[in-house]
Amino acid sequence: MALSSVFTKKYCKIVRQDTREGKSAEMNVNIREELIHLLTVSATMAGLCIMGVTMFFTMASKTFAGTVADDILAVCALLFLLCTYFVFWALRTKRQGIAVQLVKIADAFFAMALTGMVAAGFIMVYTIL
Predict the structure, then answer these.
(1) Rounded to the nearest 10 degrees, how much is the dihedral formed by the CA atoms of 24, 29, 34, 38?
(2) Which of 21, 76, 97, 123 would disulfide-bridge 116, Cβ 3.0–4.6 Å?
């Protein structure tokens, strides 16, 4: 049995259960789609942060601002990776309460990492100019 058919059957079962409980199946589908988008975006952003760290390493920028920027990018990559894990666990859990908590944690990590990435970008522009 293909992985996609297993996923579809499992997902349809969850949607049917939520509909029987009086919850809007449409709302759950939208939330699931948003989580999948957050999963892919946070994984991509982690990759971009790693690319920024390697860019600083290959350019051999030994200035203080350069080392601070690549340290910030390394921390951001870790936060994006943690965000990816929390979103994945939220998608896999069957308990609604735990899923809500995991999503809140993932959102906080994503916001912190995105803010740090912007700060590192400003430092990179300062270093280049």
Answers:
(1) 130
(2) 76
